């Protein structure tokens, strides 16, 4: 489930042919590694040889595959910090900009707890969103 490429990764290898290795007047470096605990580190930097300006960024990513969670932290040389928490395969959006979220946890065999939410994407600040809680017992 965690090995499925995202939409933005499709065709990435073909795009990299034109984006990597052709930095005229620029020195560029990209490094990626993964720790034994599953944290991915990627950093990139480039320096322009004619102006001497340099910039770079650092990104860490940690995935919890059982829950479909991904935590991403980003930091660049402009001192911009960013954090992103994404929850894969748990949201659905329809043509009316209604966003549905759902999560089901099996507490024990035959007992399930379900949390759900319906958010109006067009009128996000207006309120009127719905939240649900379900408790299911099987005999």
From TrEMBL:
Keywords: Acetylation, Ion transport, Isopeptide bond, Membrane, Mitochondrion, Mitochondrion outer membrane, NAD, Nucleotide-binding, Phosphoprotein, Porin, Transmembrane, Transmembrane beta strand, Transport, Ubl conjugation. It catalyses: K(+)(in) = K(+)(out); chloride(in) = chloride(out). Its main location: mitochondrion. One of its GO terms (cellular component) is pore complex. The keyword Transmembrane applies. One of its GO terms (molecular function) is voltage-gated monoatomic anion channel activity. Coiled coil: none annotated. It is found in: Mitochondrion outer membrane. Belongs to the eukaryotic mitochondrial porin family. Interacts with ARMC12 in a TBC1D21-dependent manner. Interacts with MISFA. Non-selective voltage-gated ion channel that mediates the transport of anions and cations through the mitochondrion outer membrane and plasma membrane. Forms a high-conducting channel with a stable open state and a voltage-induced closure with a mild preference for anions over cations. Involved in male fertility and sperm mitochondrial sheath formation. This is Non-selective voltage-gated ion channel VDAC3. The gene is VDAC3.
